[in-house]
Structure formats: C-alpha cells, structure tokens
Design goal:
The protein is of the alpha+beta class. The protein has four helices and nine strands, in the order βββββααβαβββα.
C-alpha cells in the first residue's frame, strides 16, 4: 500500500492512502499530537465524507491498537522546519471589514505573500479554501508565509 506524506509547516503531516476497496483516506497528524481522520469521496478528493477529530490520548490508543511501532519508523520528523516559512492561526474579529466577505477580497497572497490554507469555523474546517469562500467573524484562518508577511496579514485582517 502506498502512503503519501505531505509536510504541513507549522501544522504537522498529512498522510494520504487508498484502501483495497478504493476508499481514499487522509490523516492529518498535528504537531500537538491531535489527528484528523478523513474519509474522502472516491471521485473528488476535496469531498470529505466523514471527519473524525481525535485528541492526542485517542490517537495514542488507536496507534497502540493498529501497531504504532511499525508506523513510527516511517514517520516524518515533525520538528523539522523549512527555513523562512512559518504558519499562523489568525482569528478574524467580528468587527473586521472582511467578516461576511469572500476570502479573495483580502488579497492576502498579493498584498502579503501569505497563503490562507484553511479556515476553522466552530467544529468545521475548510481545507484549501477558494477565493469565493465566505469569511465570518470568529473564523480562525490558518496561513503560511514569512514572519513579516504573517504580521502584515494579521494587521490587514484586523483593520480591513
């Protein structure tokens, strides 16, 4: 079985695989030990059919059951960082001029050089949001960029 690993700087590592029955799975192991298990649609990898968010103790228990020693040898070192690239979680205040507007209106990439890679809203996560995805006050935006760019993005979102 082939498992693809993708480093998510500042977040953790994503593992993608397809079961023998053809069901695509994605597992995001966060740096803090938490994990998200996702069952994806067969025809659309962005179609999340089921998502389970597991706390670090639940991850440990599941890993024990599934044979963590075998998996641990192939795990990517989560402490490795890419020089010059950082991530940040930025809360969009209720009063921000961008609340109720599409993500594209922030012009995050063109104005700050940062990419917004996810929007966390209550118990939901919009992974790889598009420019038409609506922002709401209280959203947590996960962004990747330089330290300076992230500071500019934080400032831009706070003043609108």
């Amino acid at each position: 079985m082939e498992i693809t690993q993708t480093l998510l700087p500042g977040i953790g590592v994503r593992y993608d695989l397809t079961t023998r029955r053809g069901v695509p799975l994605s597992i995001v192991v966060h740096r803090d030990g938490q994990a998200d298990l996702c069952v994806l649609g067969r025809d659309d990898p962005d179609d999340v059919r089921l998502e389970l968010a597991l706390a670090d103790d639940e991850v440990d228990a599941l890993a024990d059951v599934l044979g963590a020693p075998r998996i641990a040898e192939g795990m990517l070192d989560l402490t490795r960082e890419i020089p010059g690239l950082e991530s940040a979680r930025i809360r969009l205040d209720e009063g921000s001029a961008y609340a109720g507007r599409p993500l594209g209106s922030t012009k995050a990439r063109t104005k700050t050089g940062c990419s917004i890679v996810a929007i966390a809203r209550a118990d939901d996560v919009i992974a790889a949001p598009g420019p038409d995805d609506q922002l709401l006050g209280g959203d947590i935006l996960v962004a990747i960029g330089s330290q300076e760019g992230l500071a500019q993005l934080r400032e831009r979102l706070s003043r609108g």
